[in-house]
Design brief:
Helix content: 25-40%
Oligomer: single chain
Number of helices: 13
Bound molecules: pyridoxal-5'-phosphate
Strand content: 15-25%
Number of strands: 17
Radius of gyration: 21 Å
């Protein structure tokens, strides 16, 4: 047992259920622990390490920016921030950007934007409708927006101004819209709760409802953005242009960053309405520029689409050998499988012992979000390791 487990217990707030491994180094789709054992990484820092670990272009961008300018605050103009902003506007349906430092912060800002919009354009409407089993972050407002009671109950009372409806149910959404409604906020694919895809027709109808009622459509693409689903942004799969998009996770390949993107018509903030000390600092934005350019220039978004299908086909084949696998689903390199029994945590444990990093979003569900640089050979290796883990777990069950 590592002595660091004891240190963590002593000093760190006990909010995480961590796996018993101390990671010290990474390269490509692999990470190494303190004892030199290597692992194939199918989690990618929870959909963050889109370029894998220690990507030369990202590492170089971070090092050279650090030598020039790490931080200045937003009292001044800085180049990486403006370059990243331009790039994102070029490659999305949006016109304006604001940078912050995390997903929750991006959503928090988007919620403030919705209230400002409602005040100006919708007679003071302030309510945001969100979906059950969604995940939008850990701040009070984003917990209130998150459609999972377990995140809310310990912190009641919740901030006001949210309504919750079942996902993929257009009647329920339509019924929830009233004079107080300012915006609808959805993940086009619900990631944290187990990779549940929004239906094409549903998201199209949501967009139409927003147009009819003059509501903002906010897509939380914190997990689905940055090529994760085989397109740069997941909204491209659904022929729906949201008014507001929030990004974080993969945006700077692992350096903390978040962003709110919006169309001109949705930009309701006035000078002084929002801000951030760190947000959009040169270091994070230089990492963002390197990440986005590499995704676009190295064909990694196409690789995400191709390898995502490759993995899904592989999992379907595993189903033959392991009937405990019930369903598989996903888009690009964001995919999941459900088991018939509550074995997901044991599979994660067994995978770890074999050198495979896995993640379970529930007792029966594995969620996969490997780096977008992953190769077919690594996918084969991962599927073999997963198969061996399933053998072990089912033999013990
Ligand atoms: C991870 C995630 C968040 C929260 O991001 P943090 O950086 O952890 O605050 C919000 N929404 C979605 C869809 C996410 O996947």
């Amino acid at each position: 047992m590592s002595q660091w487990f004891e240190v963590e217990k002593q000093v760190y707030m006990g909010v995480f259920r961590r796996l018993p491994v101390v990671l010290v180094r990474g390269e490509g789709a692999r990470v190494w622990d303190e004892n030199g054992k290597s692992y194939l990484d199918l989690v990618g820092g929870i959909a963050v390490n889109v370029l894998g670990h220690n990507h030369p272009r990202l590492t170089e961008a971070i090092c050279s920016q650090a030598k020039n300018l790490i931080h200045t605050s937003n009292l001044y103009y800085t180049l990486p921030q403006l370059e990243l902003g331009q790039l994102l506007m070029q490659h999305s349906c949006c016109d304006k950007v604001f940078f912050c430092n995390s997903g929750a912060e991006a959503n928090e800002g988007a919620l403030k934007l919705a209230r400002r919009y409602g005040r100006k354009q919708r007679d003071g409407a302030f309510q945001v409708v969100t979906a059950e089993s969604s995940f939008h972050g850990r701040t009070l407002a984003t917990v209130a927006a998150t459609g999972q009671p377990k995140y809310q109950a310990p912190f009641a009372p919740m901030p006001e101004g949210f309504a919750m409806v079942p996902f993929n149910d257009i009647e329920a959404l339509s019924a929830a819209i009233g004079p107080q409604t300012a915006a609808i906020m959805l993940e086009p694919i619900q990631g944290e709760s187990g990779v549940h895809l929004g239906q094409w027709g549903y998201l199209r109808s949501v967009k139409r409802l927003c147009e009819q009622h003059g509501l903002l459509l906010i897509f939380d693409e914190i997990q689905t953005g940055m090529g994760r689903t085989g397109k740069l942004f997941a909204y491209e799969h659904f022929d729906v242009e949201p008014d507001v998009i929030t990004l974080a996770k993969g945006l700077a390949g692992g350096v903390p960053i978040g962003a709110i993107l919006c169309k001109d018509a949705a930009m309701a903030f006035e000078v002084g309405d929002h801000g951030s000390t760190f947000g959009g600092n040169p270091l994070a934005c230089a990492a963002g520029v390197a990440t986005l350019r590499t995704l676009l220039e190295d064909g990694l978004i196409e690789n995400s689409a191709r390898l995502g299908q490759y993995f899904l086909d592989g999992l379907e084949r595993l189903k033959g050998r392991h009937p405990v696998i019930q369903t598989t689903r996903g888009l690009g390199l964001l995919f999941a499988c459900d088991f018939e029994r509550e074995i997901a945590a044991d599979v994660v444990k067994s995978g770890l012992s074999r050198g495979l990093i896995l993640n379970n979003t529930g007792p029966k569900t594995l969620r996969f979000a490997p780096p977008l640089i992953i190769t077919p050979a690594e996918a084969d290796e991962a599927l073999e390791l997963l198969s061996a883990s399933l053998d072990e777990v089912m033999a013990a069950a």
